[in-house]
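An example makes the point: we print one protein in full, the chain in one-letter code, the fold tokenised, without further comment:
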Amino acid sequence: MARHVFISYRHESKEHARAVRRLGELLRQAKIPVALDQFYLDDHPGGPDLGGWPKWCEDCANQSACVLIIPSEGWFAAYEKTTPPGVGLGAATEADLFRQALWDEQGNNARIRLAFLHDVAADKVPRRLRGWHQFRPFDNDDQLNWLLRWVANCLGLEDLELPSVHWPEPVPFRPNLADRTREEWPAVIELLASRSAHRILLYEGASGLGKSLLVRQAAAYAKPMGIAVALVDFKGGPRDVSGILGQLDLEIGEYLPNFSREGANKPHLLRRDLRTLRKPILIIFDTYEDVANNANVVDWLSQQFFSEVETALGVAVIIAGQQVPDYSKAGWRDLVRHLQLKPITEIEHWAPWVDQHYPDFRKKGADLQTVLMITGGNPLLVSQICEGISKR
């Protein structure tokens, strides 16, 4: 048996192929040899010479020490032979060989597992494949680590280097916010505890809704947890890629040794250091609308930096602004949680905050409900009026 893991999947979309490659890169970060057609093409742009792709697929399916099947309805259709003739030939060949191997082994399956990268309905999984453990490596770090350990055990690898990062458990913290405790703030807690597949958090809202306050509270929450923070505010801050790189070096350079040592001006070294991080960091981009029309910055963030978060498991990102990056067609869109900030109009969410910050407000006979009606619940206007009344 060849001492590598073979990743079997059906070519159904660019997004699916990208997710498969992401898993392959994570396996490689753990120093695990991977047989994947995309990697083979990187090294052999002309494809296999001996027997072409059919023989390459058969050899990998038969001779690999372990196999990860990436579930999709298309792959399962190939397994069940319900695809039209001439469609999905590689997956169909591999599926036939796996079916025969499972039959020959009489249920003793030591080398094939399913690794779900996207949700697939349970009834779409062929019955013969349902009995074995199923991995979901993109759901959380534990799932990824279990998959890595299983593969390493199959390959006899003793010195496994887990690429995952230990994100700390939540700590008691009361954000200095009037509200945002039902969805926006819990999203920060989940992000910094790595409790979901989302690694990029977008806060979008009109002026005065408290976006900057929210991200600064996130930074204040991260620091006592031991999470390093870099805050890049485009309002009065860097407006080009070199300025962003310099800000990152200034704030988290100690965690980016190669990037910082070489002058903090080589984006590829930043990406390399981010991939090898074993300590969590939070990178915040505030007032994004100020660079939304800067093509160089937008392209670098969207095409390089945010894409790197896929395999840089020590990085969490928050972006806030009246406008946020367009991720609808981005390869990293599955990592995004997008929240729209709205005015805070319920008096019960404002009363404790006003009493804490402006204790003279009620003493002066002011009516908080009237203030909310006048301001429409806009946090900036509410705070300005409450402060003005308190100081009279």
